[in-house]
Amino acid sequence: MNLGKRCRIDALQVNFAEHEATALGRAADLYHQYRLDWSLDGQTWETLADKSANRTDAPHDYVQLATPVVAQHVRITSVHMPGGGPFSIRDLRVFGSGQGKPPAKAPRFEAHRDASDARNAVVRSEILPDAEGYVVRYGIAEGKLYQNLEVRGRKEIALHDLNSETKYFFAVDAFNDSGRTPGKPEPVR
Q1: What's the 3-state SS for the chain?
Q2: Which of 39, 109, 117, 184 has its CA at a distance of 20 to 30 angstroms from the CA of residue 103?
Q3: What's the pTM?
Q4: Model confidence over 44-57: pLDDT tens digits?
Q5: Would you kindly state where each structural domain of the chain is located, as residue ranges?
Q6: Which CATH superfamily is domain 2-97 in?
Q7: pLDDT digits (tens, 9 = 90+) for 141-189
Q8: d(Cα 35, Cα 49) in Å, to the nearest integer?
């Protein structure tokens, strides 16, 4: 995986897949063994995590690094896959920072409830040049914005899960690979 630039890596998560696996139940070899490596140039590699002796079933293995590293490339090498299937993963997630600055501000936004069906709302926000995307947060109180949706590449999102007789608060946060800039919650009836 090429991260596109040098980034700080704090943790990784490997979500394994079961492509063509044939094991059923709790087989004795139900574990994944692998190695994770990092590189600055894609040529010289160092070990991030060595799970080649692992015997624990961890199909969504999270690896918190004791000390973060700065890298541009990450690779995974399979040692053992359970169930007789080929090496396959659903996702390789890298957690850390792009080492830049988060968006300078949160976007201006407006939220409108549907007059004919208050269970629906539309949230529109401006597109900021230093944001990769936005998180629309909403909930029933200013400090209880427990629902959220990630939005990328568009200015508008429709919501269809509100309670019709309840006042809601909305906020739109901007994010990029270096952080998040939270928006201010606004009430919408």
Answers
A1: CEEEEEEEEEEEEEEECCCCCCCCCCCCCCCCEEEEEEECCCCCCEEEEECCCCCCCCCEEEEEEEEEEEEEEEEEEEEECHHHCCCCEEEEEEEEECCCCCCCCCCCEEEEECCCCCCCEEEEECCCCCCCEEEEEEECCCCCCCEEEEECCCCEEEECCCCCCCCEEEEEEEEECCEEECCCCEEEC
A2: 39
A3: 0.77
A4: 999 999 999 999 88
A5: 2-97, 109-188
A6: Galactose-binding domain-like (2.60.120.260)
A7: 999 999 999 999 999 999 999 999 999 999 999 999 999 999 999 999 7
A8: 6
Bin 84: left if φ > 0, else alpha if -120 < ψ < 50, else beta. Answer: left
